[in-house]
């Protein structure tokens, strides 16, 4: 698969690329795409990644800064031409009980997870629409399928991204722009490593990145992994409300309480 990537994309932009799935995706694509622009807040980690890579360039960025996102996209395209594929992967996560709500963390989740994507779209879409082509992948989560305990600062933002992807797919597909939504289950990354509860079906980040890349190459709308856990979450999505809330209270909440 890597040998065919250069025929598909020349210039790729990956946000949240300094750790976890983003970093592993960069490693998979490195040397097989002419230019991979990687963004994250940590300039030091990005520099290390670029120094070790063959076709990787570092573009430090706080995705919650609208002007900085616009400038970043302009700089990438000035250096390497139009962005063919954007993987919007930057994210913020904080486990939080409703009774101990931290509005600052809620705002961070909204600014990074949702508005970060909106700022990227604002910068990317004019060029892609003018060219009549491009691929944008939005990394959401199975946490956006239904309301899960203690995810008040995270789950709603991912639900919003899933809804957003549906809107974009409907409106932009006929105009030549491919939209993918990525809904991972549990992946072993720095963001999940400190979770104080069992994580069913958790997979290593390299395995997740391979599944993500495979879905991108095939231009799938929804890209999911690991399949078993995602199917379970999809099943919960279609349950009647009464059954779902009973399961959450009797099983999920007990699991969270034991892990806390």
Helical segment count: 9
The Rg value, from CA coordinates, equals 18 Å
Termini separation comes to 42 Å
Q: What summary fits the major beta sheet?
A: 7 strands, parallel
> What string, H for helix and E for strand, traces the elements in order?
HEHEHEHEHEHEEEHEHH
CATH level-four homologous superfamily name: NAD(P)-binding Rossmann-like Domain
Highest-level CATH class: Alpha Beta
The count of strands amounts to 9
What is the count of structural domains?
A: 1
What is the strand content?
Answer: 15-25%
Structural class: alpha/beta
Enter the CATH topology name: Rossmann fold
Assign an overall shape.
globular
Enumerate the strands of the largest sheet in spatial order, edge to edge or round the barrel.
3-2-1-4-5-6-9
Task: Output mean pLDDT.
Answer: 91
CATH architecture annotation name: 3-Layer(aba) Sandwich
Tell me what the structure shows.
With 260 residues, the chain is α/β, with parallel strands linked by helices. It has a single domain, classed as NAD(P)-binding Rossmann-like Domain (Rossmann fold), CATH 3.40.50.720. It is 50% helix and 15% strand. The chain has nine helices and nine strands. The strands form two sheets. The chain has a seven-stranded parallel beta sheet with strand order 3-2-1-4-5-6-9, with helices on both faces. Helix 3 links the parallel strand 2 (35-39) and strand 3. Helix 2 (20-29) crosses helix 7 (205-217), helix 4 (66-80) runs parallel beside helix 5 (103-131) and helix 5 runs parallel beside helix 6 (155-172). The radius of gyration is 18 Å and the shape is globular.
């Amino acid at each position: 698969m890597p040998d065919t990537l250069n025929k598909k994309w020349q210039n790729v932009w990956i946000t949240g690329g300094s750790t976890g799935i983003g970093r592993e995706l960069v490693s998979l694509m490195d040397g097989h795409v002419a230019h991979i622009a990687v963004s994250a807040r940590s300039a030091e980690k990005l520099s290390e990644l670029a120094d070790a890579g063959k076709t990787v360039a570092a573009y430090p960025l706080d995705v919650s800064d609208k002007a900085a996102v616009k400038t970043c996209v302009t700089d990438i395209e000035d250096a390497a031409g139009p962005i063919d594929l954007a993987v919007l992967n930057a994210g913020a996560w904080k486990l939080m009980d409703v009774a101990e709500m931290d509005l600052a963390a809620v705002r961070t989740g909204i600014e990074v997870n949702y508005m970060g994507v909106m700022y990227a779209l604002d910068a990317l879409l004019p060029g892609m629409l003018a060219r009549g082509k491009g691929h944008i992948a939005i990394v959401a989560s199975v946490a956006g399928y239904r309301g899960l305990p203690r995810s008040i600062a995270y789950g709603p933002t991912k639900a919003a991204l899933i809804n957003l992807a549906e809107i974009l797919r409907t409106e932009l597909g006929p105009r030549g722009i491919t939209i993918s939504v990525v809904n991972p289950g549990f992946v072993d990354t720095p963001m999940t490593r400190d979770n104080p509860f069992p994580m069913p079906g958790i997979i290593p980040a390299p395995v997740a990145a391979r599944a993500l890349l495979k879905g991108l190459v095939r231009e799938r709308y929804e890209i999911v992994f690991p399949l078993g856990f995602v199917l379970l979450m999809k099943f919960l999505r279609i349950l009647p409300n009464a059954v779902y809330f009973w399961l959450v209270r009797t099983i999920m909440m007990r699991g969270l309480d034991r892990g806390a």
